[in-house]
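Structural prep section.
Before we set up the soaks we want a predicted structure of the protein with zinc ion in place, mainly to decide which crystallisation condition to try first. Input record follows.
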Amino acid sequence: MNVTPLESWIVKRTGITHKSQEALRAYQLGKLCETLTYAKDKSRFYNARLNAIDVNAITSLEAFAQIPLTTSEDIKCNAYDFVCVLGHEVERIVTLNTSGTMGAEKRIFFTHQDLEATIDFFNYGMRCLVEESDSVMVLLPGPSYGSIGDLLKKALALSHIKCIVEGVLSDVDKTAQSIEEEGITCLVGIPMQILYLSKVKPEVFSKYIKKVLLSTDYVPDTLVEALSQNGQCKVFNHYGMTEMGYGGGVECECLKGYHLRENDVYFEIIDPITEKPVKDGVYGEVVFTTLNRQAMPLIRYKTGDMACFSHQPCACGTFLRTMEKVLGRIDNTLRINEHEIHLREFDEILLHFPDIVDYKLSLYTNNTLHVKLVCVNNNDSEALKKAITWRLREHLNFEFALIIDVTENEHSIKMTNSMIKRTIDNLGNKG
Ligand SMILES: [Zn+2]
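Run finished without errors. Recording the tokens verbatim:
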């Protein structure tokens, strides 16, 4: 196993002289204090929020963990109050689709330097999986300036790696044709879409695709198994979100969790109830602070994602810590008859069936669960319904009514064609 390429990159960018956790934490503490001072000085939001905080008193990471958290709601309500630079210095504004109050949109701002920092991370992060002989296709938003596709293409160009930004999957035939024509060996995209492509075009997938990098959503184990069938394809996971500057961490060859972009982002994991840091190996909510962001630094931002730090060093031999794969959104649960079930439980049951490429769940007030399945072929939908009913009843061992529908595959792309993470439809109270 090769040591993650992120290690030498982080050592270089941080200037630490010892490859140790202590040296890296000392660098991060210094950067955290710089960020606090900068944000307090430049952003209206943090000027008010951190008013009572004496930055000189932050002499340890424990002291930093006492600083108030920032939430998604804070950004929705005050996006422009977060901005630390002048209007003309902002090179890209990303508006994220949010549910809830009309007019309260979540906007994330980047300067040129912020975007360059992301390109730098992508350049070294992609070296975890690709080399010069590879050809990469990006099935993520692009190619407009500053989009994730544009930044990845620029990053790969620095390593002389061919990259085609196809954009979010919309025409499977066209995409499969491009894979063949361009000799694509590596796909970067949204888990459910890559799964869809592999099930609809299995011959193209198994012939050409050797590596896959999944991003933007939680990745069920069953999906990784489906993609890596016959050992043909190696499946890497990336963790990131727009607020983080797109990139946050990527798996090394060991595929046991992400090594993190620790020169640019400081990660914590907290108990979602008490908001206190949890020990390594214990799952909690991922919280991050940006260390070098110009336009919109975020301090102790609550991601809503559930993960833990591994308590073991990675087998690749790096001194960097490992964050285990994100288990999904903390609030992505369905409450049926007083039982709480997480979206990933449905994933592991439903996506295990080879024909199923997507699904949608709705819950009605009388404890009736409606499962709408999207299949590659529905030749024998009665047998499939029977099998699913049996598996769901076995796993959800309590009373509830169940309706299962099977639909044609062409609708599935519309269901997942955005950067929004999948959610369970309507948490109760439907007609
Ligand atoms: Zn590793």
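Observations: The chain has two domains: 1-327, 333-430.
Flagged for discussion at group meeting.
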